[in-house]
Design brief:
By secondary structure, the chain is of the alpha+beta class. The chain contains six helices and six strands; from the N terminus they run E-E-H-H-E-H-H-E-E-H-E-H. It has a domain of about 110 residues: Trna Endonuclease, Chain: A, domain 1, CATH 3.40.1350. Helix 5 links the parallel strand 5 and strand 6.
Length: about 190
């Protein structure tokens, strides 16, 4: 780009005409601004990833992981073919014909997802730790809960104060397993 120098000519002074640079210089042909990052462009994504550093991080914090292990063991012990997943994106298990509604839940995650023997989600478990309700966490939970309800997926809240038995009981209640007598070890209770 050509660079254009601008000068101001002031009215005559006792010394004659003076040519001075303007106080505020503005290039009439500013350099083009770098285009914004396009998150849909694989080339830009690759360049960003190649230029950045990464490190692994925990999928669940310690308390969430303890709750996950309780639920995972209980689901496995029931021997009904159900599976447990951690930190599952709602965009992977829910769909909506309304694009705005889908984008409202797409990046949100549930702490623990239980799927049936066919791979269909049946229950979402949200772990509410001691510092959970900070910022917009409560609003995010309401959005997740409503979307899950509309899709027919049960919602279970557990807290840091819940014992392992309380966690198992809440999950079994939501799955309807208390009514049919599933014990923690997968055997059916007898009369």
């Amino acid at each position: 780009m050509a660079h254009l120098d601008l000068f101001c000519v002031r009215s005559p002074s006792p010394e004659g005409l003076r040519v001075t640079a303007p106080r505020f210089y503005r290039d009439p042909f500013p350099p083009e601004k770098a285009s914004p990052f396009d998150r849909t462009d694989p080339a830009q994504q690759l360049n960003a990833v190649m230029a950045a550093s990464f490190e692994k991080r925990r999928l669940l914090n310690c308390s969430e992981y303890q709750a996950f292990k309780v639920i995972e063991a209980d689901i496995a012990a029931a021997r009904r073919g159900y599976r447990v997943f951690a930190q599952t994106s709602l965009g992977e298990v829910l769909m909506s014909p309304d694009e705005d509604a889908f984008h409202s839940i797409n990046a949100k995650r549930v702490d623990i997802l239980i799927v049936d023997q066919g791979g269909w989600p049946v229950a979402a478990v949200e772990y509410q730790g001691d510092g959970h309700y900070q910022g917009t966490a409560a609003a995010r939970d309401v959005i997740k809960k409503e979307a899950l309800r509309k899709a027919g997926i049960r919602y279970v809240e557990i807290t840091a104060a819940d014992s392992a038995e309380q966690i198992r009981s809440r999950v079994r209640d939501q799955l309807g397993w208390q009514a049919i007598g599933i014990t923690p070890f997968g055997a059916r209770r007898t009369g």
